[in-house]
Amino acid sequence: xxIVPEREIAGLxxxxxxxxxxxxxxxxxxxxxxxxxxxxxxxxxxxxxxxGFKSGFDRAGLALGxxxxxxxxxxxxxxxxxxxxxxxxxxxxxxxCRAVVGGNLLTALRTAAAAAVSINHLxxxxxxxxxxxxxxxxxxxxxxxxxxxxxxxxxxxxxxxPAKLARLSDVAAEHGLPFAAVSLAxxxxxADVIITIVSAHEPLLMDAHIRPGTHISCMGTDTKGxxxxxxxxxxxxxxxxxxxxxxxxxxxxxxxxxxxIISADRITALGAVINGTHQGRTSADEITIFDxxxxxLQDLAxxxxxxxxxVTQGVATIVDF
Length: 321
Ligand code: NAD
What we know:
ornithine cyclodeaminase, domain 1, 2 domains, 32% helix, binds nicotinamide-adenine-dinucleotide, eight-stranded mixed sheet
């Protein structure tokens, strides 16, 4: 069995590797080659923790396994990350445990890669202004990955606590791009591409904020009850997602579906656009939404890539198991 510890991930998996792994698995999901299994998520009644696992199988990439972990709110006080996860991969031919991989950085890289894939396939090619809603842990990964998808010339951002925006302005400065902290209305008026990555339970970006032609990657909503954007935006948008079943139940689209604004048949798997079976954006005026709910197959895809890289580069620990 191969072990790739958390500390090795940063030196192994680049953003381009994560992008390719996530794009390929979205394509496999849409063509029926890969399937996510039902998600388990439970409050364990200890340490206020939420624990669960996401699993699936990609027959095209032969990735079988699960990501196990969750949220331990007391970890920060112990000098640990609140979100903890590990990925377990199994040999698809024998069921033997193939690898255990640290999952914390992988989660950030695969989530940012999902938004990047959506921007590449759905945003206008002439998009120049990138807007970010949120300045938490994930936001920096999102910004870095998104900047590689278009020739952005400016970054605008909003966060509930504006002081945290400094981490985003630092990344913009590294890329030589002007950065502005703006209101949500200003952000909607300026941005061609918007990423939302917050833990909100009410809409922040409203229908009146969004201009025709905008692409929005909604990345923060991954649980029932969370919400980042006005459900009314869905009425005039083309809607894409990683997995339709998750989008309508725990993703950003849950509110528009519950309100009867759209139904599941108006939502397209992003993989269909990647595979060329759906045309994606059809006009410069179209609003596109990517509802990135986060699926286990993304974790398995990047973990498989990292195991291959660790073996090739000789940093994998191999144990008899
Ligand atoms: P974090 O705790 O580091 O940051 C949270 C962010 O949300 C901050 O910007 C904070 O200001 C903002 N926020 C919190 N409550 C808010 C409210 N009521 N109104 C406005 N803003 C609010 O979290 P993170 O690690 O950056 O993750 C951000 C979100 O992304 C989380 O909800 C997390 O569950 C989600 N997430 C989704 C995926 C996916 O695959 N879709 C993967 C990882 C994380």
